[in-house]
Amino acid sequence: MSFRRIAVEEAFVTPEIMKQWHVVLAGSDVEPGFAKMGETILAQTPGNKPLDDRLLDIGAARIAHMDAIGIDMQVLSLTSPGVQVFESALATRLAAESNDVLAAAVRAYPTRFAGLAAIAPQNPAAAAKEIERGATELGLCGIIVNSHTKGEYLDAPKFRPILEAAQAHDLPIYLHPREPAASWVGPYLDYALWFAGWGFAAETGLHAMRLIMSGTFDRFPKLKIVLGHMGEGLPFWLQRIDNRYRLEVKIGACEKLARLPSEYFLDNFVITTSGVTSMPALRLSLDELGVDRILFAADFPYEDDAEAVRFMDGASVTEEERKKIYETNACRVFKLAGR
Ligand code: MN
Fold this sequence. Notes:
Shape: globular
Bound molecules: manganese (II) ion
Number of domains: 1
Number of strands: 8
Structural class: alpha/beta
CATH class: Alpha Beta
């Protein structure tokens, strides 16, 4: 069976955003998790230079790499923490500028690149406008939000214009990890727990659960959220989340939602394989969610995309399932053109 390999969580950054991160990091009021990023993966060291060079290139060199690995298309998004560590006006401006750069790359390589629009939740009205511009003028196929914005989550009422615009333009929101927010990062600051091995999933899983438990999907029933890293662990917890939710309602700990938490997860979320090459994890996700809710992603350039392709090419699934995970589901969720 023939298929295209479409990878949907593939990172880039602009030189200006990289520069402005370091302005924030040199300041006096740095989020503790972001400071850790600044000391390690964002540090401008010779060791990090190959990674930075790959993030900065959305042109011929990236295409050549994709050809070598066998990736037909990358859905590109502004890498974590994106514009969310900036003050409102700067964040809004840099989101728009990076969307212009991204849209130009997609225009240059329309069969190889698609892109998610960055937004600055710091200014919800401007973010809603940027979603409209991304969907119409720029031809972008989704929205990237690098989890919390200065400790705030998208379930907060002030962010409703963003969710409204996403739903109105039928653009999925890719909820991408970053370090836990300042209010709760403390115990994560040791042993690299703030980083991608655990803290990123804790942060993004929390964000997803806040959306579910706040009744956000009763207000925005058509809103679609994309979670990477095999659903940030949530597929594993769905049965228990429902089980305890029933008790939480009974003991008055939370409000009754129209539906069970797992039902929102199945209807309003899809997950991607980014950074996970474990057949037991994929098997569980297939069993819990079904094959139509799982998309392939490599998390280039942070993860080994050759290994991601080897895993998915060799995964114990049917050929029909492999095609859905590699291509069909991505085309449906991001409305990518067929071949
Ligand atoms: Mn990623």
